[in-house]
Design a protein that fits this description.
This protein has one helix and three strands; from the N terminus they run E-E-H-E. With 79 residues, the chain is of the alpha+beta class. The model has no long low-confidence stretch (mean pLDDT 91).
Length: 79
């Protein structure tokens, strides 16, 4: 299963976040295309935040169920 989260502007004018669950990669691809066609902002998986490969070497993951990445490089905080 895949879980896609996206933001859109509701009728009242503020941003809302919705979640769409699909069962296959093809359905996920179609859901991403639907979001693009409707002008929705697809949210990156929070796992990608703080990764040294994102967004340069890696486009990240839109699947919010994915909780681990073997390619992740943790960015060191120098503060």
């Amino acid at each position: 299963m895949f879980k896609l989260q996206y933001e859109y502007i509701c009728a009242a004018g503020w941003k809302e976040t919705k979640t769409r669950k699909v069962d296959t990669f093809d359905e996920l691809d179609a859901a991403l295309e639907d979001c693009r066609n409707n002008g929705y902002t697809v949210l990156d998986n929070p796992l990608c935040d703080g990764c040294g490969r994102f967004p340069g070497e890696c486009a990240g993951s839109k699947n919010h169920i994915w909780t681990g990445c073997s390619e992740r490089i943790e960015v060191k905080n120098n503060g």
